[in-house]
Amino acid sequence: MITLRNVQKSDLEELVVIENEGFTNEEAATREAFLERIKLITDTFIVAEKDGVIVGYINGPVIPLLYITDDLFEEIKENPKKGGYQSILGVAVSKKARNLGIARILINKMEQLVKEYERQGITLTCKQELVSFYEKLGFVNHGISESQHGGVSWYNMVKLQENMD
């Protein structure tokens, strides 16, 4: 069974391992970026565990804009109590726990938080090969992002609150 909880500072090493399994060196969040996210956005940094072992996570700050901007990978702020868009800067599942629906469970949790805190929706960027995955979850492809993060092409994916079950 998968259990979800808010991140803790003691999770850092396990999270860095999972991050580096899921992203290239250029794309992966740094240890410092993780520490900042753990400190500032604990409320929207969710960890998935199976049998007490971290198997995945999702995180991102609430932002005022519809699309993610590259500066968010460098510096974030604490989340407002209500409103804004829930961004997803990272969702990753450990190699040994893939294809178990964990990413979907984590995204569903973010949708619950969007409703609870009256956010306008969820925004994220993904590579082309993941566009169809997010479309199956109800996200709409808004085309190529201006993001240059990691030196690859990203697609803006958006799911507005009114489109959440």
UniProtKB/TrEMBL annotation:
PANTHER family with a match to the protein in the record: SEROTONIN N-ACETYLTRANSFERASE
Keywords, sorted A to Z: Acyltransferase, Transferase
Keyword Transferase tagged: yes
Keyword Transport (UniProt): no
Domain named N-acetyltransferase: residues: 2-162
Gene3D superfamilies cross-referenced by the UniProt entry: 3.40.630.30
Transmembrane segments: none
GO molecular function, one term: N-acetyltransferase activity
Family annotation (InterPro entries): Acyl_CoA_acyltransferase, GNAT_dom, SNAT-like
SUPFAM superfamilies xref list: Acyl-CoA N-acyltransferases (Nat)
Protein name as it appears in the record: Acetyltransferase (GNAT) family protein
